[in-house]
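Fig. S4 source data, part A: sequence.
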Amino acid sequence: MAGGTLWDLVGWRAARSPDAAALIQGAESARDERRISFGGLRRRAERVAAGLYARGVQPGCTVVWQLPTRIETVLVSLALARLGAVQSPVVPGYGDHEVGQVLRRTGAAFFLVPGPARLDRADRAATVIEAYDRAGGGLPDGDPALLPPPPADAHEVRWIYWTSGTTAGPKGVRHTDHSLRTAGRCLARALRPRPSDVGSMAFPYAHVAGPDYTVMLLLCGIPALLLERFALPGSLAAYRRHGVTLAGGSTAFYTLFLAEQRRLPPGRKLLPALRLLAGGGAPKPPALYHEVVAELGCQLTHGYALTEAPMVTMGDPYDSPENLATTDGRPPAGMEIRIAPGTGEIWLRGPAVCRGYLGEPDPFDADGFLPTGDLGRLTPTGHLVVTGRLKDIIIRKGENVSAQEIEELLYRHPDVADAAVIGLPDDRRGERVCAVVEQPTGARELTLDAVCGHLLGLGLARYKLPEQLEVVAALPRGATLRKVRKQELRERFGGAAAARSGR
């Protein structure tokens, strides 16, 4: 189904396969799991819409919701789509400060939460609705016959998603049903799901990947396992029980699965049904691709996306190992990528791109392209290689140093499980290169000399070598796609003396 609103797509799928499983709520025990069909999604979402309408939620009004990854959350979001409300999802990891900013900046009329906790926010002007109780019941309920007509214009802004702020507050990204449906359709075309596939959502549904993935499920008619809390090895039982074939989220998810695989005896597969890991949101070291394919026994496709454009590029499962390991895939039809010759900032234009930012000047250039703040290059075959962030370019003694380049080489050291490279203020150099590493269990103690020797052995230029090494038990990560929070590392280690001062 090519056009229409998100609610149109819900109805289309419900008519085609009403009894097919749509969502499975994962739990530690099979007794506690729940599921809903595509027909059930439509029927129950419409009743929830009627219940919210009776509580005063009108078409066009703004609703902020902060809800965990549950079937009930999907129902609430689809109900708001049926009403034509403007919804602004907030990931559960946001605290009172960030949520207060969202409520003030959106001027939300309603704030939906799962239960009575945290209802004492002094800066809240919105009416609070307990969308459901903590046991998963108590959804608003009403008579669908009393609802106004569903929205008809798929190009109206009815979604506000939030970028993860670091030094500044989060930015509200304005989306339409059309932009989110386009992204989900492109994801489906890239991953090529089979009728027998079972997907999984281990990331917060409030992330922009939530509707992106949901659109793919609706278009293809396949189910997905929902996990309110993703943790390994605890979540593996649900993956095995339901035969999940499509999993992923981001680079951190790949490494978590890989670490669990390495705890098993040789020849035993961690997830027997798994055929494809897919994701994006963070750089992927080329070596990680080959490790996943060899050890997990599945394909790995990595892509590039951002809140402003939930689908920019994605690896093709049938592409060459070289392209899958070293690039972020190719853009779908309609997505235009503009980069200055060589390596430069990535600019985007296309129907999956957002409509700008809430309360901020138009970010687009005269040709309608959006700057991303990411750096990359295009190969002769049209594959995108993302080389880092503008702010991840470390300027040391006037020379540009790519943090991502060093991270990918560090990952190849046997005593490094993960790494983040940051630039820290330095009076003599302008910035110094600091490597922050996480080690696997049983690894030998790392030294700066050993790390530099490893990097030199792989051909890294001497002026790019780290001058500071920090070993941490775990890199700080965000609550959505588990991206490394580099700003926290800069704040933590910025005052530390450089471990090597001669370069």
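Fig. S4 source data, part B ends here. Residues 345 and 375 are 4 Å apart (CA to CA).
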